[in-house]
């Protein structure tokens, strides 16, 4: 191939001189080849180039439902979601048109001082800027209430929880019709503790009174993602059934959840592990993306450290199999993208993130009418809604949303393509317009509603508190994830979540019975104080030492322990 036959137009002009010498009309072929591979990788990551035989890099058309034209009415009826059943003109009428009045009313409230939380400042050029400061609430961990309790082993806690709710029934044999071995509960406890603390069954066999063969057999036959998730659902649902659970609501009759990722180092190479000097130093790791509602981890998944958390938000929420179904979901800035408002609105939920820079984000709000009418406002829209684009792409929009609900392909693949800046599509732009309407409504509510802001901050703080508990469980034995593939790491992560859920159920039961005792005695002040306590605490629990599963030990008597605490005149209520 001659030098003049090499295409050069796709090469950035800033680096072209490193590859092509115009004076001698020569091309550095090795550098040219490297640039070609680099461009291919960039287009693949940006979802602008597709590979039909791949899983993650197929075109958007391949990800969506086939035969949409013929089966559209059947699919929409099966999905049974208001946004699909109604014309999008109704969405514009109900969600977009009221934005103008809301923008005006919020600005008037700021000017006359009805919103004292918004602070106005004059810049040197005479313009006015605004800020919305807030005080971050510190998560309440290990309250002195728990220091009054006798120390108890995590083994006894797991046995106590199983006696109450029988979560062990979810651990079925991988071959139920041909199984020769019976369920060994003590071996299950040992495997859960070994994997949840990243200790491993080999090391656990040296630290407990069970042999390695029984642990290995039990782990292979009973511990898998389906059984672990089912057991976690049983414990989570049991926590939610306790009367004290509703007292943890941040707003009356509204369940508020948060989603956030937590970084964990992996010891072995696998497809999900990535390097990140900021989080892992010179090691590599993965992210455990979890959803927490009223202190309870109700769902989790392992994602790559190179993946954006926002792409998996809909997956985590929509595929939640527990009975706990929150109404509002909050994330930090990393959990937001150009679609999540619309996706949660599709399933009749509310997305309420907290942004790192609220004022900068508010500069992208939109309005329904001419933006010039808001030129004198402090908080003003950036542009007008492109409602014609939404109406013109109505059929394609519903095709995309219905495909997400049916779940025939990975929802995160569709979200990744449609949230990419490099992916060009009229349908994508129309979806972004609908998302911008809901984002604007959220930002305006966030600015004017103090209770709404406090609920978001409180929910995220509870997520951080769970992460501290999860980190403590991981560091009990000072080890990292040692799985060699995604399934093994996910199993270990679910084991750790089950340990955390058992501890939370134990603490919640303790608090619930303490609250009920105070109510019976007419001690309303103590009862109110107990309702405000967090179940995320571990100072009274022993995770370490030699683990004895077979020896008979004293069972947990919560009523006796609480009686000793409640009759103490030094009981603290503040």
Which keywords apply here?
single chain, alpha/beta, six-stranded mixed beta sheet, 14 strands, globular
Q: What portion of residues is helical?
A: 40-55%
Can you summarize the main beta sheet?
Answer: 6 strands, mixed
Mean pLDDT: 87
Unreliable stretches covering 5 or more consecutive residues: none
The outline comes out as globular
Overall radius of gyration? 28 Å
How many helices? The count is 26
What is the end-to-end distance?
A: 81 Å
Structural class: alpha/beta
* Oligomeric form: single chain
* Share in β-strands: 5-15%
Say how many strands there are: 14
Describe what this molecule looks like in 3D:
With about 575 residues, the chain is α/β, with parallel strands linked by helices. It has 26 helices and 14 strands. The strands form five sheets. Strands 6, 7, 8, 9, 10 and 11 form a six-stranded mixed beta sheet that branches. It is globular and about 80 Å long. The mean pLDDT is about 85.
Concise structural overview:
The protein is α/β, with parallel strands linked by helices and about 575 residues long.
How is this fold's topology laid out?
Blueprint: H1 16-19, E1 20-21, E2 26-27, H2 29-45, H3 60-63, H4 68-79, H5 82-85, H6 88-96, H7 98-111, E3 119-122, E4 128-131, H8 144-147, E5 152-153, H9 154-165, H10 185-196, H11 201-207, H12 212-222, H13 225-241, H14 244-247, E6 256-266, E7 274-275, H15 277-280, E8 284-293, E9 296-304, H16 313-318, E10 328-330, H17 340-346, E11 350-351, H18 358-362, E12 366-367, E13 383-384, H19 387-392, H20 394-406, H21 411-418, H22 426-448, H23 450-474, H24 486-520, H25 524-531, E14 541-542, H26 558-566
Parallel strand pairs: 5-14, 6-10, 10-11, 12-13
Antiparallel strand pairs: 1-2, 3-4, 6-8, 7-8, 8-9
Helix pairs in contact: 4-20, 7-22, 9-24, 10-12, 10-24, 11-12, 13-24, 17-22, 23-24, 24-25, 24-26
């Amino acid at each position: 191939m001659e030098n003049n036959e090499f295409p050069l137009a796709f090469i950035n002009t800033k680096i072209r001189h490193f590859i092509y010498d115009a004076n001698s009309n020569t091309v550095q072929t090795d550098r040219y080849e490297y640039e070609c591979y680099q461009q291919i990788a960039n287009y693949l990551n940006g979802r602008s180039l597709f590979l039909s035989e791949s899983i993650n890099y197929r075109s958007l058309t391949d990800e969506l439902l086939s035969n949409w034209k013929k089966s559209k009415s059947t699919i929409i009826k099966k999905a049974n979601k208001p946004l699909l059943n109604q014309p999008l003109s109704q969405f514009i009428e109900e969600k977009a048109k009221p934005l103008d009045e809301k923008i005006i009313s919020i600005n008037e409230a700021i000017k006359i001082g009805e919103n004292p939380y918004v602070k106005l400042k004059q810049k040197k050029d005479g313009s006015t800027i605004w800020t919305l400061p807030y005080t971050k609430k510190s998560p309440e961990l290990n309250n002195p209430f728990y220091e009054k309790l006798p120390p108890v082993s995590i083994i006894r806690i797991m046995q106590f929880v199983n006696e109450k709710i029988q979560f062990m029934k979810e651990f079925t044999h991988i071959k139920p019709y041909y199984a020769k071995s019976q369920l060994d509960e003590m071996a299950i406890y040992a495997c859960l503790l070994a994997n949840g603390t990243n200790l491993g069954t080999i090391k656990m066999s040296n630290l407990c009174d069970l042999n390695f063969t029984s642990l290995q057999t039990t782990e292979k036959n009973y511990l898998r993602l389906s059984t672990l998730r089912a057991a976690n659902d049983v414990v989570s649902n049991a926590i939610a059934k306790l009367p004290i659970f509703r007292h943890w609501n941040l707003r009356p009759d509204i369940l508020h959840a948060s989603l956030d990722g937590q970084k964990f180092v992996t010891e072995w190479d696998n497809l999900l592990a990535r390097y990140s000097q900021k989080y892992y130093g010179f090691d590599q790791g993965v992210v455990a993306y979890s959803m927490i509602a009223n202190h309870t981890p109700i769902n989790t998944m392992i994602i790559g450290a190179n993946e954006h958390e926002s792409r998996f938000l809909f997956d985590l929420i929509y595929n939640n199999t527990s009975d706990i179904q929150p109404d509002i979901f909050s994330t930090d800035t990393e959990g937001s993208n150009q679609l999540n408002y619309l996706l949660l609105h599709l399933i009749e939920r509310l997305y309420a993130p907290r942004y790192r820079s609220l004022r900068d984000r508010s500069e992208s709000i939109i309005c329904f009418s001419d933006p010039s009418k808001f030129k004198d406002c402090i908080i003003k829209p950036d542009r007008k809604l492109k409602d014609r684009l939404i109406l013109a792409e109505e059929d394609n929009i519903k095709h995309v949303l219905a495909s997400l609900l049916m779940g025939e392909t990975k929802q995160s693949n569709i979200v990744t393509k449609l949230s990419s800046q490099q992916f060009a599509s009229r349908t994508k732009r129309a979806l972004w317009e609908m998302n911008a309407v809901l984002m604007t409504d959220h930002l305006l509510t966030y600015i004017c509603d103090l209770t709404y802001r406090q609920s978001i901050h409180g929910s995220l703080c509870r997520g951080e508190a769970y992460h501290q508990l999860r980190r403590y469980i991981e560091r009990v034995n000072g080890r990292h994830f040692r799985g060699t593939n995604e399934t093994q790491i996910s199993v270990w992560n679910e084991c750790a979540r089950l340990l955390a859920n058992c501890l939370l159920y134990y603490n919640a039961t303790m608090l619930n019975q303490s609250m009920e005792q105070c109510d019976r005695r007419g001690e309303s002040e103590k009862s109110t104080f107990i309702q405000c306590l967090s179940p995320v605490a571990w100072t009274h629990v022993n995770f370490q030492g030699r683990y004895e599963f077979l020896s008979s030990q004293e069972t947990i008597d919560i009523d006796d322990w609480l009686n000793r605490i409640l009759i103490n005149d030094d009981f603290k209520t503040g």
